[in-house]
Amino acid sequence: MSDHRYYFRTDEAGAQRGLDLLDAAFEDEGLPLTTMEIDEDAGIWEVSVYAPGEPDETLRNRIAACIADEFPDATIDLEAFGETDWIAKSLEGLKPVRAGRFLVHGSHDRDAVRPNDLAIELEAGQAFGTGHHGTTAGCLEMIEMVMRARPEGPRGTGAVLDLGTGSGVLALAAAQLGPVRVLATDIDPVATRVARENVRHNHRTAQIRCVTATGFHSTAFSDAGPFGLIIANILARPLMRMAPDIKRNLAPGGSVILSGILASQRWQVLAAFRGQGIRHVKTLWRNGWVTIHLN
Ligand code: SAH
């Protein structure tokens, strides 16, 4: 899957105004919008609209029309993330990351593991999910909270699903917290391969199965489910679209952990899941992203 963003540069006040304008125009589509500071000294900010698939001039033109009155001189640029580059992350040189009791680290940082840590050792790989991103860290913390809040674990209510597993980090986290079976899936075969390598590396092959699947299009889900816990760190729009499938594969009383959602999209996502009878329990906020627990 390739992804891209259209963006323009402005100052801090302009970024806020630009975000408001775009939010009003694109709120029904669930396209992620962000602002970020590019140069603190010069006060330069970027306002971006992220979109899946191949770049589309229609989207650029719509953004241009939306901001034309207030930003007549703005240039709208395109950044394409390519086939898998947007998730490409190497662990080499990355520092270990703590989230709750989890420590995610590369083999070169094995010494950083303390006695009570739940350690996850990842090989340098091409899949997203090293713990450095706020959404991964948020999910790690939430998985710990949810699985510990039920001392019997989700065992009684079925297995765990990690949808969009990337490096496999969240599946490995769940497997560390209880003797649960985990299905880890990804749309990207490269990610599935990396996840499988990491599962082997962490000696969890008996617990975690890695499968390539788009959304819920595989018999692996009915074979392994229904699930007592479904974790999905993807993006708001696909998550909203998959709400009915998530409901269908969730065991009665099961929990859902969602991330990859910008704070501004939280209500839309909650509404989509409320429509399926799945209700908000708790939200964690990190760097503009939210991780949500529902059941
Ligand atoms: N779970 C990891 C990775 C999150 S990145 C973490 O929390 O760090 C999101 C992953 O979801 C990517 O690997 C991407 O390939 C995958 N993905 C995106 N859309 C998907 C879909 N419709 N079905 C399954 N996987 C998807």
UniProtKB/TrEMBL annotation:
Q: What class of enzyme is it?
A: transferase
Where would you find this protein in the cell?
Answer: Cytoplasm
| Predominant cellular place of this UniProt entry's protein | cytoplasm
Q: Which CDD domains match?
A: AdoMet_MTases (cd02440)
Q: Which Pfam families match?
A: PrmA
Q: Which residue positions does the secretion signal occupy?
A: none
Q: Which UniProt keywords apply?
A: Cytoplasm, Methyltransferase, Ribonucleoprotein, Ribosomal protein, S-adenosyl-L-methionine, Transferase
Q: Which GO terms describe its molecular function?
A: methyltransferase activity
The EC number(s) given in the record are 2.1.1.-
Record: residues binding S-adenosyl-L-methionine: T136, G164, D186, N233
Task: Tell me which GO cellular component terms the UniProt record holds.
Answer: ribosome
Set out the biological process GO terms recorded for this chain's protein.
Answer: methylation
Which reactions are catalysed by this chain? L-lysyl-[protein] + 3 S-adenosyl-L-methionine = N(6),N(6),N(6)-trimethyl-L-lysyl-[protein] + 3 S-adenosyl-L-homocysteine + 3 H(+)
Cross-referenced InterPro entries, in alphabetical order? Ribosomal_L11_MeTrfase_PrmA, Ribosomal_PrmA_MeTrfase, SAM-dependent_MTases_sf
Say what the protein does: Methylates ribosomal protein L11.
Database matches in NCBIfam families: PRK00517.2-1
**Family membership:** Belongs to the methyltransferase superfamily. PrmA family.
Name listed for the protein in its UniProt record = Ribosomal protein L11 methyltransferase
